[in-house]
Amino acid sequence: MEQILILDFGSQYTQLIARRLRNSKVYCEILPYSAAIEEIKGKQPKGLILSGGPSNIYSVNAPRISRGVFETGIPVLGICYGMQLISHIKGGLVSKARKREYGLSEVKIVEKTPLFEGLPSKITAWMSHGDEVKKNPPGFKVTGKTNEISIAAMENPQKNIYAVQFHPEVHHTQFGEKIIENFARKICGVEKEWNPYDFVKESIRKIRNEIGRLSAVCALSGGVDSSVAAVIVNKAIGRRLNCIFVDTGLLRIGDRERIENIFRKRFRFNIKIANASGLFLSRLKGIEDPEKKRKIIGKTFIEVFEKEAKKIKNAGFLVQGTLYPDIIESVSVKGPSAVIKSHHNVGGLPEKMGLKIVEPLKFLFKDEVRRIGARLFIPREILSQHPFPGPGLAIRIIGSVTRRRLEILRRADKIMRQEITKAGWYDKIWQAFCVLLPIKSVGVMGDERSYENVLAIRAVESVDGMTADWSKIPHKLLGKISSRIISEVKGINRIVYDTTSKPPATIEWE
Ligand code: XMP
Question: What CATH number does the domain located at 196-383 have?
Answer without folding.
Answer: 3.40.50.620
